[in-house]
Amino acid sequence: MADGNVPPSARAQRGIRVIPRRIDVFRIFCWAASVATVGVLIWIGVTILQAALPAISKFGLGFLTNVAWNPVREQYGAGAFLYGTVVSSFIALIFALPLGLSVAIFLSENFLPSAVRQTVRFVVEMLAAIPSVVYGLWGIFVVIPLVQKFGPAISETLGFIPIFRGPVIGNSMFTASLVLALMVLPTITAISRNALVAVPNTLREGAYALGATRWEAIFGVILPSASPGIVAATILAFGRAMGETMAVAMLIGNSPRFTTALFQPAGTLAGLIANQFNEAEGLQVSSLMYAALLLMVITLFVNLAGELVLRRTQRMTLGVR
Amino acid sequence: MTSPNTPTQVSDKFFSGKKHKLAVLRSLGNRALTILCCLLALLTLVPLFSLVFLVIKNGLPLLTWEVFSGLPPAAGLKGGGFGNAIQGTFIMVSMALVLAIPLGVLSAIYVNEYEPYSRLSNTVRFVAKLLTGIPSIMAGLFAYGVVVLAFGSFSAFAGAVALGILILPTILLTAEQALLGVQTAYREASYGLGATKFQTIVRVVFPEALPAIMTGIMLAVARAAGETAPVLFTALFSQYWLKFENLDSLVNQPVASLSVLIYNFSTVPFEYQLQLAWTASLVLLILVTIANVLGQLVFSKKP
C-alpha cells in the first residue's frame, strides 16, 4: 500500500517478492450476504403485497375503516382489528410504562445492594426470554380467572364510564393487555435503563450540590435528560406489543365485533391472522395478507420512529460527554 | 456514590422553623418515593414467579421418560407424550441456524471489517434493526408464500426458513458488536506481520470475536425454540415422528413442534392434554434457560 507508486520492476530489483493483487473472494461472499439480508426484508414485503393484491383491489382503503369481517358473505374489513391492535398495545403501555420505568430507576440507582439489583435485572431479562405461547397458557390459567374474579367489581364501580361497562368476560381486551404489558416490560426497562445510566454523573452531582434530594434530582434532572431514550423505549415497546401474536390470540377472544368495552372479547391483526389463516381460502387468504401488510407497515413505521429517536439520543449523550 | 437522603443538613443551622418543616417534608417524600420505587420493582417479580411456579407445579408430574418417547394422544385419550415435537423443534431450530448463521455472520463481517461506512453497510444495519421489529407472524406468512406454496406441503424446511428470518437480525447484530469489540491493535499487528485482509479476518479477528458471536447464537436458539407464530402456518403440526429417508422428508410433510403443541393443547377441554401442554412448557422453559445460560457463560469466559 505504502509503496504503491514504486514501479514493480524497481521492487523486483530490491528483492521484494511481488505478489499479484488477487480478487478477494471472501469479500464477495460477505458482500453477497449483506445484499441478501437487505433483500430478505424487501422479499417479505413483496411476497405479502402480492398475496394481498386481490383484496387490495377489491376493498381498497375502505378495508382500514370497515368493521365487518364476515367470511360467509365474503365481506372483509380490518377496522375492528386495527382498533384492537392499537388499543390493546396502548393499554399495555399504560400498565408497563410506570412499572418498567420504576424498575429502570431501581436498577440505575443504589437503593439496594448490587446483588439484589443484579437479581432483579436477571429476572426482568428472563421475562423477555419466556416464549409467547407460555405467557398465553399462563394467562389462560391465571389472568383470566383473576379478571373474572375482580372484573365485575371494577365494572360495577366504574361502569358509568363506557369502557368499563359489563358484562365481564375472561377472554377480553383487558386480559390480553395485562399479559402484553408483562411482555413489553423488558423492552421498556432495558432501553430506559441504558438512557438513565448514560446521563452524565456531573448533572446528578450538580443537582445534589444545589441541595436537591435524590428524588428531586431524579425528577428534575435525570429523567428529563434521559427522556428521549425513554420515549424511544416506549415507541419500540408499542411496536413490539402490536406485533405480538400468540399470547394475544390465546387471550383476547378473537371477536370480529367492534366494541369499546374493555372487558369484552376483541381482536388484533396478528391474532386474526394466527386464528384464521390455516382454515382460510380464496379471498379470505388475500384479506388476511392485506391485514398482515397493514400490520407490517404500521410496525415498520413505529420501529422506524423508535430507532430514529434512539439514534438521536445516542448522538446527544455523546455530545454531552 | 453517596447521596443526600436528608436534604439541607447544612442549612438547618441557618434556617429554622418553617424551613425546617419543609426539610422534613422533603426528606419524608424522598423516603416514600424510594420505598414506592422498590416496591414497584419487586412487584414485577411476582408475575414471573407465578409463571415459573405454575409451569413447574403443573408440568413436573408428567415429566417422565414416556413424555419424551411417546406420541401425542388423540382427543380425549390418555397416555403418550411429545417426543415428535421435541424432535421437530430440534430439527427446525438447527436448520434455521444453518440458514441464518452464514448469512448473519458474513454480513456482520462485511459491515464491520470491509466497508464500515458505506451506504450498503448502513442499510444492512438499518434493515437488521427493522427486521428485529417485524412481527414474527410475518416470517410465517412469508415462508408460507415462498416455501409451502412452492413445494405444495407444510414442511420442516418452511418452518426453518421462517425461524431463520427471525433469528437473522439477532445473529447479525450480536456478531457485529462482537467484531466491533476486537481491538484495532490486533488487526494492525496482523497486517504488520504481512497478513492479508482475509487472513486477518479469519485467523485473528474472527477467533477473538467468536465467544461473543456464540452468545448471540445461543440467544437466537432460545428465541427460535419458543416461537409459535412462524411455525404455525409453515410446519403446521403432526401426530407422528418425522421419518427421515432423504432430503425430501424435510419438504414434503408437516412437522410437530413444542410451541405449536402447547398452543393446540392449551384450548382443549381434556385434562391430560392440558397437563401435556404444561409439561411441554416446562421442557421449553428448561431448553430456553439452558440456551441463555450457556450463552452468558461462553461470553463471560472472554477476559
Short key terms for the protein model shown above:
heterodimer; A: 321 residues; mainly alpha; 12 helices; 73% helix; flat; B: 303 residues
What strand line-up does the widest sheet of chain A have? 1-2
Oligomeric organization of the protein chains: heterodimer
Largest interface: A-B, 86 and 89 residues
User: Rough shape of chain A?
Assistant: flat
Tell me the number of strands of chain B: 0
- By secondary-structure content and strand pairing, the structural class of chain A works out as mainly alpha
Assess the beta-strand content of chain A as a share of residues. under 5%
- Put simply, the count of helices of chain B is 12
Number of strands of chain A: 2
Please explain how this structure is put together.
- The complex is a heterodimer of chains A (321) and B (303).
- Chain A has helices spanning 8-13, 25-59, 62-65, 79-108, 114-129, 132-158, 173-198, 201-209, 214-243, 246-251, 269-276, 283-320; strands spanning 69-70, 75-76.
- By secondary structure, chain A is mostly helical.
- In chain A, a hairpin with a 4-residue loop joins strand 1 (69-70) and strand 2 (75-76).
- In chain A, helix 2 packs across helix 12 (283-320) and helix 5 (114-129) packs across helix 7.
- Chain A is flat, with a radius of gyration of 26 Å.
- Chain B is mainly alpha-helical.
- Chain B has helices at 18-43, 45-59, 65-69, 83-114, 119-133, 136-151, 156-180, 184-192, 197-226, 229-232, 258-266, 271-300.
- In chain B, helix 4 runs antiparallel to helix 5 (119-133) and helix 11 (258-266) packs antiparallel against helix 12 (271-300).
- The two termini of chain B are 27 Å apart.
- The relative contact order of chain B is 0.14.
- The chains are: A mainly alpha (321), B mainly alpha (303).
- At the A-B interface, helix 2, helix 4, helix 5, helix 6 and helix 9 of A face helix 1, helix 2, helix 4, helix 5 and helix 6 of B.
